[in-house]
Structure formats: C-alpha cells, structure tokens
Design goal:
The chain is α+β, with helices and mostly antiparallel strands. Helix content is 32%, strand content 22%. The protein folds into four domains: 2-83 and 172-235, Beta-grasp domain (Ubiquitin-like (UB roll)), CATH 3.10.20; 86-165, [2Fe-2S]-binding domain (DNA polymerase, domain 1); 240-353, 2-Layer Sandwich (Uridine Diphospho-n-acetylenolpyruvylglucosamine Reductase, domain 3), CATH 3.30.465; 359-468, CO dehydrogenase flavoprotein, C-terminal domain (Enolase-like, domain 1), CATH 3.30.390.50. It has helices at 22-29, 93-100, 110-122, 132-139, 149-158, 168-171, 197-206, 219-224, 260-270, 272-278, 284-289, 292-297, 305-311, 408-414, 421-428, 431-434, 445-464, 472-483, 490-493, and strands at residues 2-6, 9-13, 48-55, 58-65, 78-80, 182-186, 189-193, 211-213, 232-235, 245-247, 251-255, 315-320, 323-328, 333-335, 338-339, 346-353, 359-366, 377-386, 389-398. The termini are far apart. It binds flavin-adenine dinucleotide and FE2/S2 (inorganic) cluster (2 copies).
C-alpha cells in the first residue's frame, strides 16, 4: 500500500502501476488538474508541488517536480497542490500577491510559480524580507514565457504584506505517521518503499531486475521522455541510514540517498568551492530531490559532482546482501554509462577526505546558461602549493570523455612546476593527450579542448591573484547589487 496525505487528506493506494508519476496520478486519478504539464522533464516547473517530510515531529515542505517523481517515492509524505492553498475565497499570500502584482498572463506556468513562492513564504519567518538571491533560488526552476519575471519577483517581495491564511490542517495533517514499508502490486508490476537497508538488500537480491530509484531526476526521464516502462521499482529515499550526513575527523561522509539540498550546508562548511557549484546545478526543485548517489550512479559523462569528487580523492561505499566495500571513485567508471556496480549492489555512502590547509580546490562549469543547465565541460583541480611550486595536484573532468576522469598528463605537466601562467599553458598542451572529447549539441570536441586550455590558464590567474573578480557569476552579482537591475543582459555577463 502507498499511503500519503494530499492537501491534508489521507489517501491509500493499493494498485498503481510502479512507474506512475505524481503528475499523471494527480491529473488523471485524483481529478486535480491545477498542476500543469509543460515539459515533462523537470525543466519548466509548471508541475511543481510541495512534498512534506516529517522531521522531528514537524512536516517540512519542499518543492518538487511532480512530472518526474514516482508516486511510490511519496509513501508516508504530505503532498500539497495548488488546489489546497486557498481557504474558500481567501487566497494564500503567494496567490494574492501574484494577482495584485499582475504576475500571470496565460496562466500556464502560474500554479508552479505559486507553489515555489509558497515554499519560500512558508519556510521563512513571518514578515521576512527576501534577498534577490533567495527569490531567484526559489524560482530557479520555473519558466514563464509570457509575463516576464519582474511582476513575479515583485509578487515574491509583496507576500509579506498579506497575513498567513493557510488552513493549518493542510500543513500538519497528522503527526502519527505510519512507519510501514510501502509498496504497490499491480498486474503491470510492483513498487516498494523499504525503510531499512536490510529490507533493501533483500529486495535487490530477490528481484535482480528491479530498478532502484533515489530522487528519480534521471530515472523518471526514461519513462517521460523515452517512453520506457519500469515494471519493478525500489525507492530508497525513505531509508534513514542512507540519508545521514556526518563529519568525522578525516572525512565528510554523505549517505547515498541524501539530496543536494540536504548536502549543500555541509559543503558550504567544508568545501565552499564545491558548494558554489551548487548554484549552477539544476533548479531548487531538482536539488530538493536529486541525490549525490544518483549523480554518481547515473554515470553520465556530464554529471557535475563526479569530477569534483575525483579531484578530492573521494571514495564510495558499495553494499549488498554479501557485504560492503569502499572503492576510490576514479575506479568506479568503466565505460560510457557503465560502472563496477554488480547485481544487488547499491551506493551506500560517499566519503570525501577533509582537505589540508595547503590544498586549494578550483571548480569551473561551462554551460550555455548560468543557471539550471547541464555542463558542456566541468574542470575541478585540487592544488597544493609550496613556495612558488606546485607540490601536489589532482584533477577531475566532465564532458571530456565517455566517463568522468582525471587528466593524468595534465597533472604530470603541472607537478613540481612553478606556479605561473606558462606552467598552466604548457599543461594545456597536454589536454588532447588525456582526452578525445565528443561532439554533441552542447559543444564540439574542438571547443571542449580549447575551453579546457582556457580554464587552466584562468586557474593560474586566479591562483596568482585570489582577489580578482574572474567569474561570470561574480560579475553578474556585483552588477545586480550595484545597479539594482533585475538581471544583467547576456552581453553584460560575457
Ligand atoms: C531539469 C534537470 C536538470 C538537471 N541538471 C543537472 C545539473 O546541472 N548537473 C548534474 O550533474 N545533473 C543534473 N541533472 C541530472 C540529475 O538531476 C542528477 O544526475 C541527479 O543527481 C540524479 O540523482 P537522483 O537521485 O535523481 O537519481 P535517480 O534518477 O533516482 O537515479 C539515477 C540512476 O542512478 C541509480 N541510483 C540512484 N541512487 C543509487 C544508489 N544509491 N546506488 C546505486 N544506484 C543508484 C538509479 O537506479 C538510476 O539508474 C538534471 C536533471 C534534470 C531533470
Ligand atoms: S512539466 Fe515541466 S518541470 Fe514538470
Ligand atoms: S503566464 Fe504564460 S507562461 Fe507564464
């Protein structure tokens, strides 16, 4: 049985197909068509809803893309849709502000935008003033094609002028949450939501053809974009031991099912350059669901976390019914989308060694848009400088080969060399020794090589002058603050 609350009311489902998305379920089974389908791939935000988790006896809500979330992932959760927000004719502050600030024209994106604004409002203290950064972050996964964003941002800032009107029973449907494992059995397949790793191991052992799902931000695209069917699905997002994040003396240890939103504060503390990459990683809705374990296991050549983790010498713990082992991440990938994970195995945790004070991490993401875009190239480089020499160096590259990997020839060209621009230019000449990149819609092979050479040189300039404003994001942020403009033009950002 899959049991959840929808707009405060308990719902039990015994018989849904395992690959039923929350969006399809809401629109076709529950007759709640306020949640819209735009892209069906997590890009536009029209399908945004709030998913609540019980944390220390309280429901905590986050936006998710219902188009790429499977219903079984919401077992024991509380779901709020746009239909649940108003109380009779009394609109929620997010809705009223959108009306008063003319934040909607055709209205197709509006339910999703209202849900993102609602999450911003409900997760802030009363009368909170939001920074532009907070508003942008909340709306980073919502596209509007006709209103323009100025009235929507005005609505975000106006929400504090309206009293909170929400019917509290919607937000706190029950504190007596059942702890049962969830699941559904349908003639077309089965879905399970185990609560413990023991149950997970047994399921993966008994059903070797079952697909494991964490945030579904990659896997669900197989259903919505490639029209494939998933007949057996095991959701791991409710296993507490896979969601823990701990700092030990030597490592930051991240559970395989921890989401990027949960991980972000820890990265800010220990790896600020990695944390900064998070502002370039997808939208808030995606980060609320996507896990680091999923990012690694997807084995995409353009996943953002693996190159950084390789540069940081991270290891992953692989578990199954027969035991556990730690492996270095750079030995995990075999070929395009192929890893060493065997049948019945899953990524239990990721551990990143704490850096020594002398190590400096630099991370560069090249994509066509600043926010919410996949990398064409990602370069991570971890450098130890002693005097004016490079005493140690470790790299990780994405978008340069069929797998995320380090650049051995580049590292050899940098090691024990003086820290100057010429050293990095010489290392740039080794890029094509390490990599024969591919041509695709994001970039040509030649562009990828040239941009990596440029990034190496930029790294030298940043190492030599740490105060330089060298990043597009920083230029744009400076512009935002100084001129009080809503968004700099693309030209201003180049
Ligand atoms: C709109 C959009 C924007 C995106 N932007 C970015 C971006 O900027 N950068 C980026 O890197 N990625 C991006 N992605 C891709 C995706 O969000 C990430 O790869 C994400 O981290 C996948 O995690 P998940 O938990 O959703 O994985 P899932 O979709 O649940 O799983 C992906 C695969 O990994 C397997 N898997 C998941 N967890 C485990 C585990 N613990 N052990 C073993 N196997 C496991 C699953 O079986 C599946 O095969 C984007 C995706 C979308 C839809
Ligand atoms: S429909 Fe576009 S993100 Fe879901
Ligand atoms: S109001 Fe038409 S897409 Fe936003």
């Amino acid at each position: 049985m899959i049991e959840l609350y929808i707009n405060g009311k308990k719902v039990e489902e015994h018989n849904v197909v395992p690959d039923m998305t929350v969006l399809r379920y809401l629109r076709t089974t529950k007759n709640l068509p306020g949640t819209k389908e735009g892209c069906g791939s997590g890009d536009c935000g029209a399908c945004s809803v709030l998913a609540g988790d019980m944390v220390n006896g309280e429901w905590r809500y986050k936006t998710i893309n219902s188009c790429i979330t499977f219903l079984s992932q919401l077992h024991n959760k509380s779901l709020i849709t746009v239909e649940g927000l108003s109380q009779g004719s009394q609109l929620h502050p997010a809705q009223q502000a959108m009306v008063d600030k003319h934040g909607s024209q055709c209205g197709f994106c509006t339910p999703g935008i209202v849900m993102s604004l609602t999450a911003l409002f409900e997760n802030a203290p009363p009368n909170a003033d939001f920074s532009l950064h907070e508003v942008y972050d909340a709306l980073s996964g919502n596209l509007c094609r006709c209103t323009g964003y100025k009235p929507i941002i005005d609505a975000a800032n106006a929400m504090k002028n309206y009293p909170g009107t929400i019917d509290v029973s919607i937000w706190t449907p029950s504190t007596e949450r059942p702890v049962d494992e969830g699941g559904s059995d349908h003639s077309e397949g089965q879905a399970w939501t185990p609560k413990t790793e023991e149950a997970l191991k047994q399921l993966l052992n008994d059903y070797p053809d079952a697909r494991l799902v964490a945030g579904a931000t990659d896997l669900a695209l197989e259903v919505t974009q490639m029209h494939r069917r998933i007949h057996k699905l095991v959701a791991i997002n409710q296993i507490a031991s896979l969601k823990t994040i701990t700092e030990t003396r030597d490592y930051l240890v991240i559970g395989g099912a921890a989401t990027f939103t949960e991980i972000e504060p820890f990265l800010k503390g220990s790896f600020p350059e990695f944390a900064a990459l998070m502002s370039r990683f997808a939208s808030r809705q995606i980060k609320n669901s996507a896990t680091m374990g999923g990012n690694i296991a997807s084995a995409s050549p353009i996943g953002d976390a693996p190159p950084v983790l390789i540069a940081l010498n991270a290891e992953i713990e692989i578990s199954s019914l027969s035991g556990s082992r730690w492996v270095a991440l750079d030995t995990f990938y075999i070929d395009y989308k192929k890893t060493i994970l065997g049948t019945g195995e899953y990524i239990r945790a990721i551990r990143i060694p704490h850096r020594k004070a002398t190590e400096q991490l630099k991370v560069y993401k090249i994509s066509k848009r600043i926010e919410d875009d996949i990398s064409a190239v990602l370069m991570a480089i971890n450098i130890t400088q002693q005097g004016d020499k490079i005493a140690a160096v470790r790299t990780g590259f994405g978008g340069m080969a069929a797998i995320p990997k380090a650049g051995a020839a580049i590292e050899a060209a940098l090691l024990n060399q003086p820290m100057n621009v010429n050293t990095f230019r010489q290392a740039g000449l080794k890029v094509s020794e390490d990599f024969q990149p591919f041509n695709d819609v994001r970039a040509s092979a030649n562009y990828r090589i040239q941009v990596t050479q440029g990034l190496l040189e930029k790294c030298a300039l940043e190492m030599l002058n740490p105060q330089a404003t060298s990043r597009v994001e920083n230029v744009c942020t400076a512009k935002l603050h100084s001129d009080n403009v809503i968004a700099p033009s693309a030209q201003e950002c180049v």
